[in-house]
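Q: I'm writing up a methods section and want to include an example of the input and output format. Could you take the sequence below and give the corresponding predicted structure tokens, formatted cleanly so I can copy it straight into the document?
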Amino acid sequence: MPRLVICYSAHGRLQPMHLNLSADDVLKTTRSVRKRLDFDKPVERAIVEECLEIALQAPTGSNSQGWHWIIVEDAAKKKALADIYRKNWDLYANMPGRKFEAGDTRGERMDLVRDSAGYLAENFEKAPMLMIPCIDGRLDNLPAFAGAGAWGSLLPAVWSFMLALRERAMGSAWTTIHLMNDGEKEAAELLGIPYDKVTQGGLFPIAYTIGTDFKPAIREPLSKVLHWDKW
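A: Here is the clean output for your methods example:
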């Protein structure tokens, strides 16, 4: 079990809680958290900013640092974003799902994943904060090298943010469904994001977690996806 450390400043103000996990444990136990998000516990701006300061140390192509971070606390705006997400979720959830062979752990766990994702869709706006990471430029229809470079200048920072949350007894879930159809434009209009100049990378709830005892996920064996020298 991780050991939770709660600190107070000289002024009696609550400081970030740290689980004191090893680097390997943080990497192996940071999950997309949905049903175990604590919707009732407030989240401090200072702690989120501390996590973002860590995220800014992630790699960025050509040192471009073209990332932007939209944190949403306003209840009406959170509800509007959640409505965009739910509208697209209703479409996505009714699409034919991927089929897996018998014995594949991904297929065996699909019902649990769908149930968890549906719970988040129903309750998205209850999270104390929502975050939309953005990157300079429109990434539509880019050639592979340009797209890989652009996303590679944002997504590592997003993952670093989630890792930093985990170490502080907090969690999030990586979602992209609000971007479907006209959802990205609707979110941009709602939040004043210049759609023609900036691309959104997802929608992330931010909350403390109910308990901190997260474990490594069940994955297919490395031997199925590891290739040495050729495919």
